[in-house]
Amino acid sequence: MGTALLYDEEMTKYKLLWVDPACKIEVPERLIVSYEALVRSGLSDRCISIPAREASDSEILLVHSELYLEAVKKTPYMTLEDLKEFTLQFGDVYFHPNIYHCAKLASGSALQLVDSVMTGKVRNGIALVRPPGHHSMHGAANGFCVFNNVAIAARYAKQKYGVKRVLIVDWDIHHGQGVQYCFEDDPSVLYFSWHRYEHQNFWPNLRESDYDSVGKESGTGFNINVPWNNVGMENSDYLSVFCHVLLPVAYEFCPDLVLVCAGFDSAIGDPEGEMCATPDIFAHLTHLLMNLAGGKLCAVLEGGYNLTSLAQSVCQTVQTLLGDPVPQLANLRGPCKSAIESLQCARSAHRRYWSFLKHAADPPMTDISTKHIKSAMEEEEKTEMAEEERCTEGKVWPEPPERLCPPVCSASVLPDDVVCPDGLKPLSSSKDLEPLLVSKLKTAAVDGDGVTTFSRLYTLVEKLVANEIRNGLVLVPDVAAAMMCVVQDLTSDLVKRVLVVCVGKEKELDYVTTDGKVLVVQISSEDSEEHRSKYYIPVCLKKGCSDTSGFIQAVLGLLLPLGYEYNPDLVLLVRMPGSGVVDSMWQQLIGLLQGFAKGHTLVLMQVNEKACMGSTASALLGHPAPPLQDLQTPFPEDGDALERLRERLQADWKMLQTTS
Ligand SMILES: NCCCNCCCCCC(=O)CS
Ligand SMILES: [Zn+2]
């Protein structure tokens, strides 16, 4: 299934008709450069073009009042003076004779996108729209927004398709207060937003944008705010919040649909956000959300005012929606102190509502919400001093790297008597191995056909590293022996860093590097105190890998942050026999691991586990993993052990930090 792209140049046909410094950044060119970048890069041709349409009155009334709608209906016939007058009643927004028409197209586009995804016409998609929506409220326009496109889409999806749970992720740099107000008492819509806040000193300067606004009444716990109290947040900060706040809750919530308030003013160079995350971060944020809701994801453009980073960020998002490999993120050095405080506050505010956050630490001593009573003088100083050094238009960043799709997606190395699953390309050619390696294999008690398997395995790795293949599946007689050989001989020259993810445990892994060329994370039911090192991390689950709740917690809160920081060139996923890992979890794991090493994942399985080759192949081919249904509450021992493990390892691995 494909990716929908909604764009209509009609939505470029309104602009600011008078002087208003607060609104001058919201220009038609935002849409033009975004669409043109998609055309120029060839991405638009790979999408399924879906026409925009006007939202109807009844659809708009899902969120807005009749009074407000009737008032906006009059704006096309207003004189310039009337438009200025009409605008004065709202904040930081402007009206234009054609904006009502465009606002209906923007909301209608979001609904078209929901239809396309919910009817299975496409898997996911993006709507390039203006005016944006997430600040507009029941009875008011605000922050460049007229109708709340995403809020209307959420209500529409519930009403028309009976969607039970909608996750709204707002990665725009502003707090979508309009969305928060709409759903704060609604447990069927989980709203997550991060936003520049600076202790309430940044627009829209709302007390209710802070982390302690967790929702109300039956919606308590279903509103998550992560305030950024400093500018200059980077990729590490964004990924830490995804791994340690959003994703654990999102998996527990188990949405049927994911809507994204895709604002790109959170990217480097944006005058509003003044953050430093690079456009390729959106490739990863999109990728991480695509594993939810069976891949049903609708992204709707919100903000984004630096035309260069906006265009690049849109392309990064669309390319991931299309299933292209995500780029490697280099030198993630962990979240900054301010980000850790924010994520610690958000986690502790929600630990009583989400069992996946149950073991979150107490809030930091310096309760950050009281910091907003800063002396004006201090604020003034900061602004003057920071002006020149902040990330504004002057900031430069490298073009995102090209994300080439290998000619072959998934290859397989199977014993001759095993049928190759659909979609996998059997790797036939296997060059003869160097005699040295053969002799080594012989000593490893590998029999004749084992040597053949290993020579094919070696060829497979060479093709992965050469980006001729994206990923591969190998069935071997003895998975532990195979892993040793691959690890020992791989790290010779082919790859710099191998992340080995060991699911289950047959026997002790007696091969551990200390030079960092291999990082082993082993998830199993047994603890192994001995020779645990920075590069060998055993994760013990009380009930073993069959406990999906504990497993996914370990993956999100430990494996993902580690993997991002380690930044491997190859991922070796080893399924030990008898691991007991549940199929949907296995597919989720393969899906999530695609975020590393440009998707170069090598799955090693034992021949006697060939029954799960089909689902492995499906995940390797990029088909969305089935949602993890009815997750039980994780065992307290596991949650607690994971927290302790993170605390112990965070000295070595900065991405594991969740407490200041
Ligand atoms: N009143 C002092 C300056 C206020 N600036 C307001 C900017 C609104 C931004 C809204 C936006 O970007 C939507 S995504
Ligand atoms: Zn914004």
UniProtKB/TrEMBL annotation:
InterPro entries: HDACs, His_deacetylse_dom, His_deacetylse_dom_sf, Ureohydrolase_dom_sf. It holds the Pfam family Hist_deacetyl. SUPFAM superfamilies: Arginase/deacetylase. Residues 26-320 form the Histone deacetylase domain. It comes from the Eukaryota. This is Histone deacetylase domain-containing protein.
